[in-house]
Specification:
Layout lengths: L13 H5 L15 H7 L6 H7 L4 H9 L23 E3 L1 H5 L4 H18 L3 E4 L5 E3 L13 E7 L4 E6 L5 E6 L4 E7 L4 E6 L4 E6 L4 E7 L4 E7 L4 E6 L4 E6 L4 E7 L4 E7 L4 E6 L3 E6 L5 E6 L4 E7 L4 E6 L4 E6 L4 E7 L4 E7 L4 E6 L4 E6 L5 E6 L4 E7 L4 E6 L4 E6 L4 E7 L4 E8 L2
Antiparallel strand pairs: 1-14, 2-3, 4-5, 4-31, 5-6, 7-8, 8-9, 9-10, 11-12, 12-13, 13-14, 15-16, 16-17, 17-18, 19-20, 20-21, 21-22, 23-24, 24-25, 25-26, 27-28, 28-29, 29-30
Length: 441
């Protein structure tokens, strides 16, 4: 998801592995043995110290860019023709211009989406921070019946998605997608999920009722993260290497526009109420993009190496993990200014919010922990020990369970949200990273 998910190679961790792969090796075998490479480079008992020593400097970050995969670019050129950023800042097709939504129409779309949510089932609480369905906490936390739910996990080196049943916690399906799936985002209303495949330079579209890939969409180079505005049904993908954002129309599942950025974009989130897109890049900026004309309206200086972000629409706050600063920046969406800085563990990454218990969960990649933060006071309530190199995090708001992807362990830690203690471990594919949840009705 959410952060759904990432430089998610964790810069020094994953790119150090990728740099050992000869991406220009013979044409006879253009697919490296990622599982073998991963196993050979799994951390030893001294990995935490090594991680600190490998934390990216300015030179290392430049080397990271040089190590990105390039051998298959001729085979994965996007079908969408991108306009030269030197000649124009934005590339709008006629179709995209026709679909620009005026303020009054947009407000009506919000009302319509909320009505859809109310019609989906009893116990739903409306739209969440990004306009998607928020469970009204049925079951132990609220009232009503627990809904079936599936957790979707990207397995980076396996080129697959693991589907976990929230009731039995077993893997019920494995979906083959593109190469190096980095992030996944679920659209609860359209019952589709979108997967950013970094090496393939494309997005896989999954029908969540059948768990099958129904379309593959070519985007920019090295797509990292994605987000969805469910009101407009627009999907936004941050393309790190090509320094732009692809805009996909969720009705046709095709690229309708490209937003060019000054720096390489990474973490991304959409606010459906304001129709704005929030993007962090490889500098230290939070960019705010207008969802109508796709112009960058504001840049806010935040911490070092920002990676993930999550929007709390009720509090009008954006939470951003700054991996090199070991902190979370809290940005007020009304004033567009930083109001708080929360110090957490080493190399914070994924962020998710539990609206039922008013807690924020942050994965700390180098500390092998999860920080539990009070949603209102920003106090650190607890630090939870999890697996090796925790990455993505997603919350089952119905059952009050938190799922954490441990990239180096190939596991998911399940945390009980009542006591904030680990309850279960689920084995998944090779190098899990991005996650999201889908509620069945």
């Amino acid at each position: 998801m959410g952060f759904k998910s990432n430089y998610k190679i964790k810069y020094e961790k994953r790119y150090s592995e990728l740099s050992k792969i000869d991406i220009n090796s013979s044409q006879q075998d253009s697919t490296p043995n990622h599982q073998q490479v991963d196993k050979e480079n799994r951390p030893t008992q001294n990995h935490q110290q090594a991680d600190k020593e490998r934390r990216p400097s300015q030179n290392q970050r430049q080397l990271d860019k040089q190590h990105r995969p390039t051998q298959d670019k001729q085979h994965h050129q996007p079908q969408q023709q991108y306009t030269n950023p030197q000649s124009t800042q934005h590339d709008y097709s006629q179709k995209a211009q026709e679909q620009i939504i005026q303020p009054q129409e947009y407000q009506q779309k919000i009302i319509n989406s909320q009505q859809k949510v109310q019609n989906l089932g009893k116990g739903l609480g409306g739209l969440n921070k990004e306009g998607e369905i928020i469970p009204g906490a049925p079951g132990p936390i609220g009232s009503g019946n627990l809904r079936d739910a599936h957790i979707y996990v990207t397995n980076f080196y396996d080129n697959t998605i693991s589907v976990i049943d929230a009731r039995g916690r077993g893997i019920i399906s494995t979906i083959a997608v593109g190469e190096w799936p980095e992030d996944i985002y679920v659209n609860q209303l359209t019952k589709k999920a979108y997967v950013a495949n970094r090496k393939s330079n494309n997005v896989s579209v999954i029908d969540l009722m059948s768990d099958t890939v129904i379309k593959t969409i070519e985007v920019g180079d090295d797509p990292h993260e994605l987000t969805i505005n469910p009101v407009t049904n627009k999907i936004y993908i941050s393309n790190f290497a090509s320094k732009n954002i692809s805009v996909i129309d969720g009705n046709s599942d095709s690229v309708i526009s490209t937003i060019y950025m000054k720096d390489s974009p990474h973490g991304i989130a959409a606010d459906s109420n304001l129709n704005k897109i929030y993007v962090v890049n490889d500098s230290t900026n939070l960019n705010i993009i207008d969802g109508v004309d796709y112009t960058v309206s504001m840049r806010i200086k935040i911490g070092e190496l920002p990676t993930q972000l999550n929007i709390d629409n009720e509090q009008k706050k954006v939470f951003i993990s700054n991996s090199s600063s070991n902190s979370i920046s809290v940005v007020d969406m009304n004033t567009n200014s930083i109001t708080n800085t929360i110090m957490v563990g080493s190399f914070p990454w994924g962020i998710d919010i539990n609206y039922s218990t008013d807690k924020i969960y942050v994965t700390n990649g180098n500390s092998n922990t999860v920080s539990v933060i009070d949603r209102f006071t920003y106090e650190i309530l607890k630090t939870i020990r999890v697996g090796n190199s925790p990455n993505g995090v997603i919350i089952d708001q119905d059952r009050n369970y938190i799922y954490v992807a441990n990239s180096f362990d190939d596991t998911i830690t399940v945390i009980d949200g009542y006591g904030d203690s680990p309850e279960d471990v689920i084995k998944v594919g090779n190098y899990p990273s991005g996650m999201d949840i889908f509620y069945l009705y």
